[in-house]
């Protein structure tokens, strides 16, 4: 149910943003430049005349790298402590039980290594999402439950495959999956390789034909970026987008960064 409520909030925000986007883009672009050095960021916010990269159709598969890196690899010291291993295993077994991977299916599951239990859970969740013909958001409830319980154990490949599966379910599912991913990534350590890989995965959504999906990716990147310099580099990947909504969002992000710089310099 939590996933459904979050999706409703996301849609309400998107609809409101779509209505206000054009006006916002005009108002912000005409602000007095003395309010905060926005001109220095115009190279990011201004639409470019260069050729746009080809977008991927919903039928065209994305070639993803096989990334089995766990976010927990950045915290290897946790793996060396038996009490944490036991606690993590107990939580993993509880999740497995909740989603149907009980002792009748895998009698020896409790004897598996934590990494193997994690992969079984992730494969099961992805299979359910791929084969579901009914309430897709009920499947996201299971995914959300897993990510809330073990955000730093989920593999990077799981997030990549999750977005791939969601893409085939439509733009609403893909948009929701991106926001769910960003929510989980907030638990990652800044400056780590898994976080960088996750940002690259989200950034690939900029090629989507759906404006909603591209906007979701842009918002999520703004949320999970470690600092302004990194965010500016990520925004450059959207500079050729012809959508007025996307450009309005970029302008707004640039404005906030300029104001933050102004405050930090005082």
Structure description:
By secondary structure, the protein is mainly alpha-helical. Helices cover 62% and strands 0% of the residues. It has helices spanning 2-29, 42-45, 76-79, 82-98, 114-131, 136-149, 156-167, 171-185, 193-203, 211-224, 228-235, 244-264. The protein starts with a helix and ends with a helix.
Tell me the distance between the termini.
46 Å
The value of Rg in angstroms is 20 Å
Largest sheet geometry: none
What percent strand? under 5%
Oligomer: single chain
Mean pLDDT rating:
75
Structural class: mainly alpha
Shape: globular
Number of helices: 12
Question: What fraction, in percent, of the residue positions are helical?
Answer: 55-70%
Beta strand count: 0
Unreliable spans are 30-80
Order of helices and strands: HHHHHHHHHHHH
Q: Could you write a compact summary of the structure shown?
A:
With 266 residues, the chain is mainly α.
């Amino acid at each position: 149910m939590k996933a459904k409520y979050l999706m409703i909030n996301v849609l309400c925000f998107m609809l409101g943003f779509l209505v206000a986007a054009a006006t916002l883009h005009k108002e912000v672009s005409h602000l007095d430049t003395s309010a905060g050095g926005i001109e220095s960021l115009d190279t990011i916010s201004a639409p470019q005349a260069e050729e746009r990269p080809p977008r991927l159709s919903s039928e065209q598969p994305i070639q993803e790298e096989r990334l089995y890196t766990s976010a927990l690899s950045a915290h290897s010291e946790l793996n060396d402590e038996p009490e944490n291993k036991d606690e993590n295993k107990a939580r993993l077994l509880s999740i497995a039980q909740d989603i149907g991977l009980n002792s009748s299916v895998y009698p020896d599951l409790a004897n598996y290594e934590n990494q193997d239990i994690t992969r079984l859970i992730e494969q099961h969740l992805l299979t359910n999402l791929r084969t579901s013909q009914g309430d897709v958001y009920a499947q996201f409830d299971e995914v959300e439950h897993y990510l809330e319980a073990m955000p730093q154990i989920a593999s990077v490949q799981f997030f990549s495959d999750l977005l791939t599966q969601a893409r085939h379910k439509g733009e609403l599912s893909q948009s929701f999956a991106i926001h769910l991913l960003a929510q989980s990534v907030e638990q990652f350590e800044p400056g780590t390789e898994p976080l960088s890989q996750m940002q690259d995965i989200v950034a690939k959504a900029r090629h989507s034909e759906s404006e909603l999906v591209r906007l979701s990716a842009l918002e999520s990147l703004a949320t999970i970026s470690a600092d302004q310099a990194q965010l500016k580099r990520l925004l450059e990947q959207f500079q050729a987008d012809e959508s007025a909504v996307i450009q309005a969002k970029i302008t707004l992000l640039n404005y906030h960064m300029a104001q933050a710089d102004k405050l930090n310099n005082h």
